[in-house]
């Protein structure tokens, strides 16, 4: 009997709570915040590729060219943590028509350049020292975390403004937020892909500007439920 009585009380409490939840007047809206910023740094993926019929010679030539590239990078006073070897490979390839093996050696270096004014100097210098493939160039902001926070705040403000627009016609007011859902996707800077092979004019005496960084866009999306008063 006691168990039945306790079960009835619990059931009544759950039903009453559910009814109270359903009776809360609320509005569900979405908001988007966008921040456009000028990038202040760039990540470059660059590769030295060598080919030949002798594996040892191909690797040796590849190492020599990458050594020259690293010397150039170090001479530009980049922090040791801002450049690193990303990939190294030495692969045999068989030519069925000529019935002989050749070898393809590659080394890829990743460079974070924090001073964009050195971009052209670095790119031209790397090609002069042996880089013959630019994999990608990705412009970024060193203040990404701050801008992501600003974008989220703008998204919440837009959501509240939408809610106020809707309920103003009904003569109601927007109350406290009930739930907030972050629908933002992880921000990945979009790389600019270069051609497989790259050549620059070595005899040009006039400094050239080949970079147009433009702007990067950081976006936040939220869904918010507000209580209506």
TrEMBL record:
Protein name: SIMPL domain-containing protein
Source domain of life: Bacteria
Annotated InterPro entries: 26kDa_periplasmic_antigen (IPR052022), SIMPL/DUF541 (IPR007497)
């Amino acid at each position: 009997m006691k168990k039945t009585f306790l079960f009835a009380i619990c059931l009544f409490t759950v039903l009453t709570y559910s009814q109270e939840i359903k009776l809360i007047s609320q509005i569900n809206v979405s908001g988007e915040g966008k921040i456009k910023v000028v990038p202040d740094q760039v990540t470059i993926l660059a590769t030295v590729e060598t080919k030949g019929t002798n594996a040892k010679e191909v690797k040796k030539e590849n190492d020599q060219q990458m050594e020259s590239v690293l010397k150039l990078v170090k001479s530009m006073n980049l922090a040791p943590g801002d450049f690193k070897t990303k990939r190294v490979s030495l692969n045999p390839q068989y030519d069925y028509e000529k019935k002989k093996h050749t070898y393809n050696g590659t080394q890829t270096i990743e460079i974070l350049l924090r001073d964009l004014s050195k971009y052209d100097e670095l790119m031209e210098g790397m090609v002069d020292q042996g880089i013959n493939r630019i994999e990608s160039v990705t412009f970024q902001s060193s203040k990404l975390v701050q801008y992501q926070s600003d974008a989220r705040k703008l998204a919440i403000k837009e959501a509240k403004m939408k809610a106020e627009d809707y309920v103003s016609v009904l003569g109601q007011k927007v109350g406290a937020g009930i739930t907030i859902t972050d629908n933002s996707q992880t921000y990945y800077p979009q790389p600019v892909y270069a051609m497989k092979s790259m050549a620059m004019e070595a005899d040009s005496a006039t400094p050239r500007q080949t970079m147009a960084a433009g702007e990067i866009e950081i976006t936040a999306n939220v869904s918010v439920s507000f209580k209506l008063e």
